[in-house]
Specification:
CATH topology of the largest domain: VC0802-like
Structural class: alpha+beta
Radius of gyration: 20 Å
CATH architecture of the largest domain: 2-Layer Sandwich
Number of strands: 12
CATH class of the largest domain: Alpha Beta
Shape: globular
CATH superfamily of the largest domain: VC0802-like
Distance between the termini: 43 Å
Order of helices and strands: EEHEEHHEEEHEEHEHEE
Number of domains: 2
Number of helices: 6
Strand content: 25-35%
Length: 234
Amino acid sequence: FIGSTEDNESTTLGREGSDYTAAVFANMLDARDQTIWKDVEGVMNADPKEFPEATFIRQLNYEEVIEMAYYGAQVIHPKTIKPLQNKNIPLYVKCFLDKDLPGTTISDQNISDLPAIIVIKQNQALVHLHTRDFSFAGEKPVAELYNLLAELHVQANLLQTGAVRIDICIDDKADKIEKLALSASTLFDVQVEKNLTLLTIRHYREETIEALTRGKRIRLKQQSPKTIQLVMSD
């Protein structure tokens, strides 16, 4: 997975480059399936290092894996999924420590009754942006903000807009936050909260939310029928 840029400089395909290379070849060769060997039983519903009770997931579909990766789960990278999804090639994630374990099958099948999938990101910062003249935080300021995030190579882990404010949860990297706050201050009044945690739960249940937020202060909440995200402090 080592290649070159247009300027003939050596480079790699980045994280999970070997998995991606295999997926590209699987696509080109019309492979029956692809197997990735790892040191875990398969895909888990949470990081077993943080959640010893994490459970193994037997089957997932392409979309769910991409959603999990988007929210920060250390699973298969989305770029690996795309070549397989394009030709409906199943992906097997198996354990090289015990080849008899069934592993996780990732395909285009509709999977129901998934367990709550939990992703926790520590060291988060919440950037509050408030319009200075109480004008609406409409399409133009939001578009300018997205352009600014792209220029600074800042990933918004959660972004929520209101009538006159925008809240962004990002990784707490001092240099990035300082540049973002300085640049955004030309458009907004800016406040920053640090030492926060971002909790994301897919296929959430009320008891799971209650257990994971007990004793925490909720600084920001975003919820859809399948996913809830909570920015929390101790």
